[in-house]
Amino acid sequence: MIKIILSRTSALRFLDAIEKLFPDAIRMRLEDIQQNSDIGQSLAAFQKYGNDQISLASNTGRVIQQRGGGFFSGVLTALTGVAVVLLVYHWSSRESEHDLLVHKAVVKWTAEEVVLWLEQLGPWASLYRDRFLSERVNGRLLLTLTEEEFSRAPYTIENNSHRRVILMELERVKALGVKPPQNLWEYKAVNPGRSLFLLYALKSSPRLGLLYLYLFDYTDSFLPFIHTICPLQEDGSGEDIITKLLDLREPTWKQWREFLVKYSFLPYQLIAEFAWDWLEVHYWTSRFLIVNAMLLSVLELFSFWRIWSRSELKTVPQRMWSHFWKVSTQGLFVAMFWPLIPQFVCNCLFYWALYFNPIINIDLVVKEVRQLETQVL
């Protein structure tokens, strides 16, 4: 507001100087304006608009700031460049989705692929790597092994927990005929549509996304999720994340209570906690998810603050129903046309939601903070 007053004072001084220097020219120009009614009306409207803006600034104490790039735009551009480099590196370094074991029948596994499957069970599995390689255990031989054979030479897996986990995972492999997905990329390879849906659903509507997992993907997705974010006390023994997820039991009441509280008030924290437990498996991707969850939590708080400050609490049920209808309609629309969407487009959308949305949300948070500052002034 001080800037506006100073600008107006400077303009008045400039006009006074012009009138003193060129009095005859000013008088002739005023006579021309008085004779032309259109010009007079335009000038009157312009002056009224200027007075209204100054009055608004004086009453509210707000300063109208112009949007500009500056430092923040440079930082945003730099972050976008870093994300592009990481994405290109990820695409170039990761093996093709069609070469993953989740697409290859277990009976066709080589000895090296059996060892790869074993090592993905956890860091402890590297203790038995050389034993399986020396015996050249391929997929067909793996399916014939029993607990008794694992406990004696040449395998000699004396740790009961290790042996139990290997047997449990082996039973899953026998039932499916392929390796079940055990990380984000394998899950995407097996369920490309569902993984893309979950990324966008957990961003725009995390509560509905988690409800979808509970209703339609309880065993494969929801149980691992709730056991990761709401573990039992006895699970704090330092076991790796893969080992914990292999032994999935029905959640206890304590786990349900913790989950429902976070589900109601801090849904994005659930996503951040889940990603945190996968830091060793997905170093950079988990960090992108954690940052994005924090930013989305801030944006949700801003949304609730706007509703509260505008006294629009009565509109919350209507907003919830409209949001539910919008998300459901979009999900149904994508499901109908999913077979027609090229795989390349799906991959672009997936990686955009995974790596670029956090950068976009940084910009949204900064805009919300600036808007809040102008309201306070």
Automatic annotation (TrEMBL):
Keyword Heme applies:
no
Q: Which Pfam families does UniProt cross-reference here? A: SAM_1 (PF00536)
Keywords (A to Z) from UniProt: Membrane, Transmembrane, Transmembrane helix
- Transmembrane segments in this chain: where? 71-91, 288-308, 329-354
Tell me the leader sequence span.
Answer: none
Checking InterPro entries in the record gives:
SAM, SAM/pointed_sf
Q: Which Gene3D superfamilies match?
A: Transcription Factor, Ets-1
**Which ranges carry the SAM domain?**
109-176
- PANTHER family per UniProt: BIFUNCTIONAL APOPTOSIS REGULATOR (PTHR15898)
| Name assigned to this protein | Bifunctional apoptosis regulator isoform X2
Species of provenance: Erinaceus europaeus
